[in-house]
Amino acid sequence: MYAEDITNIIRRIQCPELTTGIYFESILNLLLIYLVGLLKHAAMRQFCEQNHGTTIVDVHKSFANLDKITALLAKERILQYPHGTGIPAVQHEFEMNHADKDNRV
Q1: From start to end of 10-99, where are the E strands?
Q2: What is the DSSP-derived secondary structure letter of residue 37?
Q3: What residues have CB less than 8 Å from 76, skipping those under 6 apart?
């Protein structure tokens, strides 16, 4: 039940860089994680409050292992962005969804 709720939150946010906000590889990523960290997001705070907690661990003790949430993020990233988010992915999306419009003019 909680996993479905968290998955719905991830889908609503629609951010390919979304992380748990806990791990970072460099200081440069720290700002990005602060901005797009799932656990800091207003939707997640609202979810915790609705489930009588202040943090995700308060909602359910199994979330102390953030690997579950990281796995949900990874799964949704693959489903939402199957070609990735880099330049080749943008080019592919453009070719699939916008190239025909340019030819009709």
Answers
A1: none
A2: B
A3: 7, 10, 11
Residues 6+ positions from 11 with CB-CB distance below 8 Å = 76, 80
pLDDT band at 33 (very low <50, low <70, confident <90, very high): very low
67 Cβ neighbours under 8 A, 6+ residues apart:
none
In this predicted structure, the answer to whether residue 40 has a pLDDT above a threshold of 70 is yes
Could you tell me the CA-to-CA distances from 37 to 21, 22, 73 in Å, in that order? 4, 8, 11
pLDDT mean over 80-102: 75
Flag the least confident range among 15-19, 29-33, 41-45, 100-104.
29-33
Burial state string for 17-27 with b = 16 or more CB within 10 A and e = fewer than 16: ebbbbeeeeee
C-alpha closest to that of 50 among 2, 101, 98: 2
Cα separation, 63 vs 32, in Å, equals 23
